[in-house]
Amino acid sequence: MAHHKPNLPQKTCARCARPFAWRKKWARDWDNVRHCSAACREGRRPAAEAARKTSAGPLDPIQPGR
């Protein structure tokens, strides 16, 4: 029998706009949790708005030496 957790609260990540569910390690601080992962919290993932803008517009040319 599979273990399912259908009744966990969910939030939307402030950076990537993906939904994420409650985790036990966030139990004491759930009201203050805003990001789905450390990558989003530290800015390693692009923001949802920036990702949408770049996907709709032209791509920047790759510059040598970068």
Automatic annotation (TrEMBL):
Compositional bias ranges of the Basic and acidic residues kind: 42-52
Question: What segment(s) does the record annotate as region Disordered?
Answer: 42-66
Q: Which InterPro entries match?
A: UCP037205
**UniProt xrefs under PANTHER family:** DUF2256 DOMAIN-CONTAINING PROTEIN (PTHR37463:SF1), GSL3115 PROTEIN (PTHR37463)
Name of the protein in question: DUF2256 domain-containing protein
Lineage start: Bacteria, Pseudomonadati, Pseudomonadota, Alphaproteobacteria, Acetobacterales
